[in-house]
Each structure stands twice: as C-alpha cells, then as structure tokens.
Specification:
By secondary structure, the protein is α+β, with helices and mostly antiparallel strands. It has 3 helices and 5 strands. It is globular, with a radius of gyration of 17 Å.
Length: 111
C-alpha cells in the first residue's frame, strides 16, 4: 500500500474486486464535491444526511424543491430535525433556502 499526502491509501492497481459488478454512470448521475470530506466533521449527522440528499436531488444549478415533510420521510427523520439541519447548513454556508427551493452552494477552498 502507498500512503498519499492526505493519508489515504492508494491501491497499487485499480482492478475491481468483482469486474462483473462494476457500476455504470447513469444519465441522471449526481455528484458531490470531494472537498466536503474535510468539512463533514463540522456537521451533525442530520445535516450530513440532508446535504447528501440535496446533492442527489439537485439539478445542474444545485437546486431542488422539497418540503420539510417529504424530506423527513425520505431521510427517516422528524420534521423538526430536518428544519434544524436546514438552519445549520444555511448558517455554515453549505446551502441557501427560500421556501421550497434549496440551493447547494459551491465548496470554497480552505485558506
């Protein structure tokens, strides 16, 4: 194994464990900025769940429409927990919100 500068372990070869089960990227593929990895420690589990869901649901501009009740059902959370997570993500600069529109904000490089 090879240690990378960020302490992750790089595999010497990238052959899949099971080549018959390699994923394909569907046309509706969603993505999350890899720089979020370094910021997850600052978020609650509810905030992480909400942020990840919003990344999956977002259009190309990072926007999606969801009610608190629908999000609570999708995430198996109480509606109050969704509201609190939303407030936390807005406060931390991860999302913007104007009922019922969520907008994921770009991840800024740490200085």
């Amino acid at each position: 194994e090879v240690l990378m500068p960020d302490s992750t372990i790089a595999a010497p070869d990238r052959e899949p464990v099971d080549p018959s089960r390699v994923r394909t990227v569907p046309p509706h593929f969603a993505w999350a900025d890899h720089r979020l990895r370094e910021r997850l420690k600052d978020l609650t589990l509810e905030e992480i769940a909400l942020l990840f869901f919003l990344h999956l649901a977002a259009d190309r501009n990072g926007c999606s429409y969801w009610s608190d009740g629908a999000l609570a059902k999708k995430l198996n959370l109480r509606e109050g927990d969704v509201i609190q997570a939303r407030f936390g993500l807005v406060k931390r600069g991860r999302i913007l919100y104007r009922y019922p529109l969520f907008q994921i904000l770009p991840v800024e490089d740490e200085r």
